[in-house]
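We emphasize that the prediction below concerns an isolated chain of 646 residues; any contacts that depend on oligomerization or on bound cofactors are therefore not represented. The input was used exactly as deposited, without trimming of termini.
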Amino acid sequence: MNEEIAYFPTPFPNEDYRSILYRFHKCSGNKEVYLTSNELFGFSNEKFTVFPRNLSALFCKMPVNHSFNAESILKEHTLFNIFRPFISTHRLDGLYQEINNAVKPEHSNIGKLVGNKYGRCISEEIRYCTFCMKEDNQNYGVSYMHREHQIAFLDICPIHNQKLITDCPQCHIPLLDVFSGRCKQGHCLLLESGNEDINDDNQLKFKRKIYKDISFLLYTDQRMYRNLIDYRLQNYLFNRGYFKYVGALKRDKIILDICNYFSEEEILVLGLSIEYLKQRNTLEKLLYKDDELVPNIPLYLLLVQFLAGSMKKFIHDEIPPMASQVPFGFGPWCCENKLCPDHKKEVITKCERKIKRSRGITGEFSCTTCGRSYVKEWRWGKGDRGKFGLTSLSEDMKIRVIRLRKEGKLIKDIAIEFYCDPSTIRKVLEKDQSYSRQSAEVISRVQSEINNGLLQISATEIGNLKRDNYRSRLESFISKNPNKNRNEISLECRKEYRWLKEHDNEWLENHLPPSRSINRFSWNLVDLQLSQRVKEIAKQLVESNPGTRVGKYMIINALSKQERGRIKSYLKNLPVTEKTLNENVETVEEYQLRHIPALVKQLRTYYNYTIVSVENILAYRRSYRNCSVEMKRKINDILERLNIGY
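Result of the prediction step, given as a token string:
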């Protein structure tokens, strides 16, 4: 239907988009909202949506010289500008497409912007300020919805600092359209005493700060995009020292600082909680998942307040760009080999740097004079640790090592002579074939010593001693540091932790603190539970014998709101549920067989049939006429049972 509408309300300042539509609905003569929705947009909704959809259909029905456009509606009569800077360009294109043109309900995403449990931005209930209602009634003759009153985490009027109301103070009926200034029962709402005074000064100050940030986003003429927000956020975090050198976020540090900066009540004002902030990936999603459809606006506002003090400063203030120190500097570097003629002289011109997640940065320095290399460690915020370890040996040195070992010198003595770790000497000897042949003689001698009783401790006993030693060390550390978590224990007792993890994991798990990831949300568990619910609902629906076929959407609509939402939005995470849903849909043949008794009753009631045959059914219902022979046989069996006694 593309009939032109003769009238459309002129929007009032800051009037919510839904309020404009409700005013049109009042004047349209339609009894139900879904009729008005169908008239304006070509689809039926029981209530008007928070954000526009299919505006092109509305504009086509308006007079030719109308001044409306999608951008002005979004900017002046919705809260869309709050979300725009935090949504990727790719996602914005999809949302604009939905705002301007019709899309299928299953492809609709604009409604998801209102948010969820942690991160809800639009209030579920319509809110009013009685002071604003009174002023609107005096200035415009009607009271209307203000868009800034619908922000979920701000329950005060920013102008009057008064508590917003969602239902009538006298009869407690929810308020929807109160253009006359009265509720549905006729109680007057234009009373200044209808608002509740706010006594908590700290919360009120915090809410005012948040509202200033919201106002900046709503009214600024500067077009901000997601890449700008990401860039500024990362710069602030980097300059405050919240990034590790490898790029990972210091999540525990920033959460601790946020909890110290804000009171728990201030965090709760935004609909967040300390437990939510501590959850894994809560902050990482903001920094690394740049294609999220639903931005967590309250969390963004909390971070902006913490890092910059206000959204305006966050966007406009100059901050130093991200710049890192150069590990070990630019050289040249000294040779640390005491055997080298150029010991402690700056003769090394090349440094090979490698990132080691657990140890920061390592640098390998090779001296051309002695042929030796050594490794140093560099930590972010601490710099060069000063200690070094020699690594590879030159070919001449390897020959000397093998010669000294063949002469009977101990490995540890050779290592001291060459200023390196004994493991370096062992690697050189293991690669030398002449030494490998000699190793057989050494093994034979050791075996002889074992047989003579010189070595009485077996490999198993050595392993047990090692295990008991590591257990004792770890238990001692845990008892002295009861507040350390698993990650901190693994870093402090790296050697003991790794060995026990590989060789004695059961004991280790029983003595470590509980893992923080044990109670994490599991889609697999939800999938199994939801598939069972689908099976039960499908069975109940069939047993209730409805007049229509039990299809996929009938089953889904019979589920709870949460279950329906999960199937609609996260079906890709619910493979078992999807399979169960398809398996429990009633086929056409199953429905036709179930419906036979109802058809027989109709024929007997309205057409005076007594004995009903298959031919009667086929003549009465066209949908049965293409039945297979097997289907007709089943129908006949049912009819024979129903015809008994007639």
